[in-house]
Amino acid sequence: MFTPEVRQAEFPSLEGRIYLNTAAEGIPPQSAKEALDDYFQSKIKGMDGRDDLFKKFEECRESAAGVFGLSADEISFCTSTSEAYNLLATSIQFSEGENVIVTDLDFPAGATPWLRLPASPDVRLWEHRDGVLHLEDLETLIDEKTRLVQVSLVSFLTGYRMEWAPLQSLVRERVPEAILAVDVTQATGRVVLDCLDADCIFASSYKWLLGSHGGCVVAVPHHAKSKVTAQAGGWYNLSNAFDENRFTHAESLPGAASFAVGMPSFPAIYTLKAGMDFLNEAGIGAIARHTDQLVTHLHEGLAELGIKTMSPHQPGNSSGIVSFQSDNDETLSKALHERNIHIMHQAGRLRVSIHCFNQMSDIDAILNALQNL
Prior knowledge:
It contains 11 helices and 12 strands. By secondary structure, the protein is of the alpha/beta class. The protein folds into 2 domains: 4-20 and 283-372, Aspartate Aminotransferase, domain 1, CATH 3.90.1150.10; 34-280, Aspartate Aminotransferase, domain 2 (3-Layer(aba) Sandwich), CATH 3.40.640.10. Helix 2 (30-43) packs antiparallel against helix 8 (266-282) and helix 3 (50-68) packs parallel to helix 8. The longest helix is centred in the C-terminal third of the chain and has 21 residues, at 284-304.
């Protein structure tokens, strides 16, 4: 993907180790470290630095627009996807008998807020079969009282990548007014997004976007602005925060802007912009083509070793995550770590995640290690 010189300059921490765990923690480029210093230089000016901070906020929106394929006014930021989903819940006034559909491949941030509401809707679980979410199973769950369908474009658990167009068509046909929400945390920065006709799109900053903790990109496309507006108190999200009527009435800005409820997390904004600038310069399409080759090689190598992945390989629709189950996951993970190969293990599962800085030699190394082990 990069020349050895660029890789060494931007990712010096990768020297002498093979890092295949971006789905847990991304490795920011050196430019993100420099961005943190820029933030500090603005912050020590006190109020005189405030203009710099908000200017960076707007520049970060432009960078995110490039990564997502949207316009800057469709973008804003929260501090985490958990915050974003809990704010999304305020935009829906549920009536008795209404329901929400989530999947068993979702991360808890997108699946659990609906269980914590004062008047919780009926939460229906769309379950995978052999690692695949089948539309015919969704058809049995969705009805005229469905208010929201929540999915992850790429599952953190298995790496399964949703076939978006058929899902979108089904939801729009069966219940056009329902909100279609998608978590792209495990996709953005690694794949070209094909879900821009969703109603809201969320992505954490510290994984594939190569930023720091404390950030989340919120995207609400223009077509959904009227039905996806967080109804939360705050100030930065309100159109009348300092008007005379502010103590009797709170009016949210529409769409994505309604999710930025307070002072932005500027350190995260600075590093996120640096990470996304790096991705935009490389090109998301080029990153996808490069990493797709590595993912295919890993799937083929695992098959030769008799290792079945938790989701089938989808040529042309792949993600950066490959997971497989093992009775001795902790032992294998430790042995790989001793060889300076870093992956994720959790509850009988091993997860390999491949990003732009990885090389074919990284995949050969883990396959050779697994064969020996």
